[in-house]
Amino acid sequence: MRRTTALTPILLLVVLWGCSPGVALPDPLIEDPLEMAANLSTDKAPDSFLAEARIEFYADGKARKGKVLIMVEPPDKLRFEVLSFTDDLLALLVVNSEGFGYFERGAKACHAGRLCAAPQISQMPMASDPALLANLLLGKIPLLTNPAEQTVEFSTEDGTYHLVLKKGDHVQTVRVAPDGKRVVEASLELNGKTRYKITFEGSMNVDGRQVPRRLRLESPEDANDSDISVDYREFEFNVKFHGDPFEFRCPKGVDTRQWDCISQEEQ
């Protein structure tokens, strides 16, 4: 009997520990989805920026690694130069509201055309929506406008807010850090299929602003089941670009193939 009595406090502590929340609730706690949405607002166009990053790219069962130079001129002009570790150009992608241009070293032709064809040709997730992609690269998530349903709650299991917006066949889920301002992960589903999922890891201070140190963008329905990770090494805001790096020019002697909207089977 004495041995059972001695174990009772220990068993009680185990039970209490199992019932207690894993993470303490933030103080103050955000319970209004409108307040959370206001914190995450992307109404203001991002500033121009130039970044150098390490890139890991997986698509069509193939893996590629290298460096990438990213140039962004808001609201929707982007240029990606994929470089070898000896700074040789491996691939070039330029996108804007009018269309895209893509070239890969060793290819017999350049590719250009409507934005709807850009993800499949370049295998860059979300290339068909450059304004959205520009925000995603900064850790910003444009939210569904005028959702029919929206909820927010704090999860004591993973220590983040879960903001869920529903509008028609779209469901957007955004996980936000306890400060209620920094996005940790976001996904958008359309008719039950994931359009994109993006995860942000770490953060770095650039001119007084927080930028994700690493991001992973998955787009199963967009670009050949692509999965791309970007680790920023250098980052600069308010860059004045010389010339027009957002005008695509195919190398001399290489033909350009024009693309309209295509499906996976047409490639």
Molecular structure report:
The protein is 14% helix and 45% strand. By secondary structure, the protein is mainly β. It has a single domain (33-239), classed as Lipoprotein localisation LolA/LolB/LppX (outer membrane lipoprotein receptor (LolB), chain A, Clam), CATH 2.50.20. The chain has a 14-stranded mixed beta sheet with strand order 7-8-9-10-11-12-13-1-2-3-4-5-6-14.
Spatial separation of the terminal alpha carbons: 76 Å
Q: Give me the CATH fold name.
A: outer membrane lipoprotein receptor (LolB), chain A
Total number of distinct structural domains: 1
Helix and strand element order: HHEEEEEEHHEEEEEEEE
How are strands sequenced across the largest beta sheet? Answer: 7-8-9-10-11-12-13-1-2-3-4-5-6-14
Please identify the top-level CATH class: Mainly Beta
Strand content: over 45%
The shape is globular
Query: CATH superfamily, please?
Result: Lipoprotein localisation LolA/LolB/LppX
Give the helix proportion (percent range). 10-25%
Residue runs with pLDDT of under 50 for 5 or more positions: 1-7, 9-20
Could you tell me the number of beta strands?
Answer: 14
**Secondary-structure-derived class:** mainly beta
The CATH architecture designation is Clam
Mean pLDDT reading: 86
Q: What's the main sheet like?
A: 14 strands, mixed
Q: Enumerate how many helices there are, as a single number.
A: 4
**Rg value:** 22 Å
